[in-house]
């Protein structure tokens, strides 16, 4: 290619680029802007239904929870965001502790969502409940062998356990609950026991844990129930079952996905409308059918498949503990060599 | 700039966290990172150099076709290759299931130890060494090798005594890029759950909310990169490698069985690094195309293209200015320092660079707030300026190395004769340097474009509304374990990347004919 032609193309292109980067997106006044660490395919159907019901447009930006929190902190009062939506109580608690949310306690929210799934100061609201419990091979494990999370550390599970990586927030929150229920030194022993029992390097994803059990690499694991639901939807005959952990003691570890209204929101009113709508029976049913999670609104029934797994006792640890104890949990897992 | 921000963090030490890290994490991480780097480094150097030597110096069946096919794996993002390999070769993958059921081989955890992850990195990154050593072998004077043959040296001896020493600088340059990419990787290491130095950076930032310790660890990474670059330059020494006349006759003819064995080996590498993963992606894509394909892909492709092309143009523009010959002589150590710094960004993990940028921007914004009373954050976050800045900082090394290599081939005699004929410096640049550097400029631009297209962490953090890319779509779906659906955007990326690589290869052919 002739170098002069190349340079003229460059000049034309630079002009185009500069003009395209200077068109700062204009956000219309009544639309709501959401930053979300929930993936696009899980939130888009909800927002579309909301727009259909209320006529309010929703713009959203997805990202990793921690990174979006940093971005919100830096954008400060000039942020375009009206709402921050994320998974895990630890993340919600941290966003609250960084002064990103405003206090929202409306009658609708109070009647739709039970108090233990909301921040005590009204900074954030849980919108769906996810349970993390034991999954086992129906071919190689009798349910009578199973009991608690702590029991998975006992020598009888040597070489039979698969776990998800300690770098995932769900593992961190579960470990935080183990610390909360057993104290730090007992929790350390439990983690060491888990690590000793591993049949494979901790997996990157819950779906990998279940695949490992199905292929015979290990016999038991820990997963969020909706991953199990997705697997069963695709493969109804999979030789896997859920076991509700800690039913005679503290109950199954639960976590939430949720949202809060941004302190500096330019459309706080719209964001509150959206938050209330998300807590309504209609939205909660969409949550359940989209992702096989448990509704946070206790007035509605779970999705058909989800309710077929039966009811269970939940751990009533205040969810903000997951945030408060998170750093301790990570440290402990790093010390004990849980990768 | 991100590097300065990262360096400044040493002013704010945090002792408690450092004690935990140095006691419980760093010893293990340093050894696992070293094993990974040594394994990947040795692997890519061997594989890349041998492949390049074979396609340049030896005639064997299918050589012409395989010579360009070996470029293609560069188009596959490392994290995509990693999830394909895990899907096929992990304990529950069908390759292992088949081996257990039909051959009775006991199953094994491929993520244990480091051989599988090393192999993955080698197959993703060998094209760097292959590209660079191939170009260097092509420039080697055939008569040197013919002389070696006449003196009775065996092919192996010619390889080790003549070809390899001459190709050493090129191999070192490819190795350097590979090592920096491996250090910065986050996608492959998290899928394999293999801890490296980058793991500690993320832990400091994500778990302990300490941006300072994260930045301090990152600055160690930059320091390591600085030494690597220094030793690479040192190893290259003062030697100048000018291009020679290229001949199209191959010094060696591999006939019969030997030829087919070579074909089998080269074809095997191509199958494993490109054909097999593509086939798996096609199968997955076929299963999910109805569910996943929608009109939003038009937007994803548009924004990916705009970002890719803009970043490539800007990066190449700056790199060309930095690489113009004759500058370092007149100008100073200072300029050399600036160039080194500008190319260091490559070793920083994308998200560390992004966070460094965010903090830097925040300072600038605070200053502007002080003077004008208005925050400029919404302009910065509402535009792709910041993102382009991150791309340019991160991929400068790629463009610069490629352009500098072509600048080095401008023999001083051209400059001298042009000067004697009374050319001004501007005319010299316009009529002598730029035309001669064109191949390097185009090659650098294409490589940067492919890299930007594959880039994930910085894009994810810094993009404004409506600028989702194909890489982000791949990530969001694969993060949920939906690999079948993630195959769709991944395939589109690989197709675009392959087209770019083929253009690259075409250019390469043209220039080697005319030079």
Task: State the major sheet of chain B.
Answer: 2 strands, parallel
Beta-strand percent range of chain A: 5-15%
Number of helices of chain A: 14
Helix percent of chain A reads 40-55%
What is the CATH architecture term of chain B? Orthogonal Bundle
| Total of helices of chain B | 23
Looking at CATH, the homologous superfamily of the largest domain in chain A is: Periplasmic binding protein-like II
Alpha carbon gap, first and last residue of chain A? 52 Å
Anisotropy-based shape of chain A: globular
Number of domains of chain B: 1
Distance linking N and C termini of chain B: 39 Å
Helix content of chain B: over 70%
Radius of gyration of chain A: 23 Å
Q: Outline of this structure?
A:
With 339 residues, chain A is of the alpha/beta class.
Account of the protein in words:
The complex is a heterodimer of chains A (339) and B (515). In chain A, 44% of the residues lie in helices and 15% in strands. Chain A is of the alpha/beta class and 339 residues long. In chain A, strands 1, 2, 3, 4, 5, 6, 7, 8 and 9 form a 9-stranded mixed β-sheet that branches. In chain A, helix 2 links the parallel strand 1 (32-36) and strand 2 (58-62). The radius of gyration of chain A is 23 Å and the shape is globular. In chain A, 51% of the residues are buried. Residues 21-27 of chain A have low confidence and may be disordered. By secondary structure, chain B is mostly helical. Chain B has a single domain, classed as MetI-like (MetI-like fold). Chain B has 23 helices and 2 strands. Chain B starts with a helix and ends with a helix. The mean pLDDT of chain B is 84. Chains A and B meet through helix 1, strand 2, helix 3, helix 8 and helix 14 of A and helix 2, helix 9, helix 10, helix 13 and helix 16 of B.
